[in-house]
Amino acid sequence: MNRAGVPASRWLYAALATAVLATACASSGARGHPFNVHEQQEAFYLPFDRPSVTGFYGMDGKPCVAAKSGVLWEAEQTDATCSHDTLYDGIHDAELMLRWKGVIPKDGDFEIETFDNGLRVWVDVASRGGWNSDSSADVTVVLEARSEHCSLTWMDSVAHVASFGPEVRDRHYGGFREVPTLRLVSCKAGDPLEVRVGLVAKANRGRIEVDSFGFRAGNAYDASRVVGLVARKPGEGVSAMQTTCSRVEGGICTHTEIIQTDLHGGARGHPPPTPANIHPH
Which DSSP symbol is given to 215? Predict the structure, then answer.
């Protein structure tokens, strides 16, 4: 039995399904868009900084620990590696977050690329309903890039479940989520840059179990070759997703609109802006 009272055998079936799906995804490269191999070799890579955990716990009741490489949480046995349950942990957001930090190498536009590094997401989401109120639980993956002159936020809904009476509903998701090509516009050389990739869980009455989240990396060197910057000229690579600047303070973009992907993989929101929309003069 785990913290949520779920028999360990329940996770055995999930583990078998995960293994089959992982083999299928690995054979296809777990990628949704092509990339240039030369650009992968020439990209400016951000050093991996650290993982962080908020509101997720292991079977021992302690915050769940990432693998030695630091960029992946993955269950070694049949039980989930991380659990967030409102019955034990209260009603608040929980997250697993990976951070890369570096500096902008030169003035201009950059695309954030993970190339052939697939983002693994294996989760079980359960919502426990009641007589007097509705309940819900959901999981979202997010990428945030923050620098003084260029920033963006991308979100992708992975799983959502809701209960409207005294019942328990659950949903399993296991696979690779594509991190699309994302454009940072009008960056300034020498500015610090932080890129965060995370899993965010929200529930008002339910449970989120994480079997696997993150990127596969054998060592610290591989972990620092996951997130790269590819320099672009204005207008080049127009298929990249961009965000509009919603607030400018002192000539610096301080708030951006969110690029969000729905459960079916389609992007919604504003059309790609021009550089002037990102950093007006």
Answer: -
